Amino acid sequence: MAYLARMRRYWLRAGWLHALLLALQVTVSAPAAAQGPVFVTDVNGSIGVATHRHMIQAIEAAQAKQAGALVVRLDTPGGLVSATRNIIQTILASPVPVILYVAPSGAHAASAGTFIVYAAHLAAMAPGTSIGAATPVEMGGMPGLPQTKNEQKDKQQDDAATMRRKAINDVVALLRGLAQLRGRNADWAEKAVRDAATLTADEALKEHVVEIVAPTVDDLLAQADGRKVSVNGQDRILATKNAALVTFTPSWRVQVLAVLSDPNVAFILLMIGVYGILLEFWTPGTFVPGTVGAISLILALTALTVLPVHYGALGLLLLGIILMVAEAMTPGTVVLGIGGVVAFIAGAVFLFEGPGADISYAISRPLIIGFAAITAALIFGLIAAVLNARARPATAGAEQLVGSIAQVVDWRGSEGSVRVQGEIWAARSNPPLNPGDSVRVVGRDRLTLIVEP
Cβ distance 235 to 30 under 8 Å? Predict the structure, then answer.
């Protein structure tokens, strides 16, 4: 009996020791985050290069302050594929837990926004928001070999279908990989790409696409408190309840880049640059139009480097301007002017339809029509000025002045000046003359008129 009692005490102590070791292991593997501040930043509009730099600066600022988490309020229709991939890599490598919060009510995380939400350590949505429609935009066909028209058309369709399948399979694999990494619904992620499926906030919570539905940031942080997330392969317990909030705003350079990367702003800068340089050539010496035009053109080119530019459309846009300028230089050929306006509008409509975006970067139609009208008005106004100048009577030459009556303006000896047909000419006469005398032009010696009383 004593032996059994000793064995029972031994196993009891061993059980308590084993439980203690397990508790210590859990504590080591998932340490609770220190109660640091929580950074909050807003990402609105199209996803682009400026958004990626915004995310980098926000994560660096949160890390520098040892923040407990970074909350990103997201509202986006989508954006550039390359920028989205860079943002995903930045979030995955972040030393600070990133909480993607689709907010406020009425916001959506479409296309590229869906990928960014799936990459986050913790995903949340506000009531009245939506997520999904992550199907990439079709890039269009590729030219086939010059065979028959039907064969070439079929070849182009096959190439376009192949390219589209590749693009879809690529983004499906990316989104499923993110879903598996974060423990979210991978099947719905594939539907969001292949079928452009969308979900509301409550539906996304039920489908395990997001972890939290919260109306405010405070409620979000209260629900996130105590949750375990994986940060760079290490489990971490969030400590966000009642944390101090720090609003992060990106640097002025990022804000300027965000403004420049707007297609409408880029188009306006491009047109101001072209107008300024043309006006400088037409009215040389003022330097103001040329300076403003050069600065605007450089800013426009900077914006074009971060936008999905269709270079064929850009060439069409410039061709339209060249044709209208040619019409101004050789007025009367109306075909050049009309062709220039048509080419200008067509180029502006398709300017930002190049590959690399999962949404359409379209320029505002009223803006296109307005600039087309302004350009045509400037060009054809110049044509009217040229035609009006041609219609004016030409100033009489020296030979045409022979026989005209002139009036002496001043005279010394045998030389002086006379006024004839509203112009002052040097004159010479053998008889002496006096100011105010009327004389007749009888000849010319280079730029000197020969007159007599």
Answer: yes
Torsion on CA atoms 88, 60, 248, 266, rounded to nearest 10: -60
Mean pLDDT for the chain overall: 80
| pLDDT at 156 (0 to 100) | 56
Q: Residue 69 forms beta bridges with which residues?
A: 38
Give the mean pLDDT of 65-75. 95
For the chain, the straight-line distance linking the first and the last C-alpha, in angstroms and rounded, comes to 160
Residues in the chain: 453
SS3 state at 131: strand
Separation of alpha carbons 339 and 320, rounded Å: 7
b/e per residue 308-333 (b: at least 16 CB within 10 A): bbbeebbebbebbbebbbebbeebee
Q: Which CATH superfamily groups domain 399-452?
A: Nucleic acid-binding proteins (2.40.50.140)
Are 442 and 449 in contact by the 8 Å Cβ rule? The answer is no
Q: List, by residue number, the catalytic residues.
A: 111, 166
Coil, strand or helix: which one is 305?
Answer: coil
Considering the chain, tell me which residue range(s) the CATH 3.90.226.10 domain(s) occupy. 28-253
pLDDT tens digit sequence for 5-62:
555 554 445 454 444 444 444 444 444 445 689 999 999 988 888 999 999 999 999 9
Cβ-in-10-Å burial (0-12, 13-18, 19+) of 219 comes to: middle
Name the architecture of domain 28-253.
Alpha-Beta Complex (3.90)
CA distance 36 to 242: 10
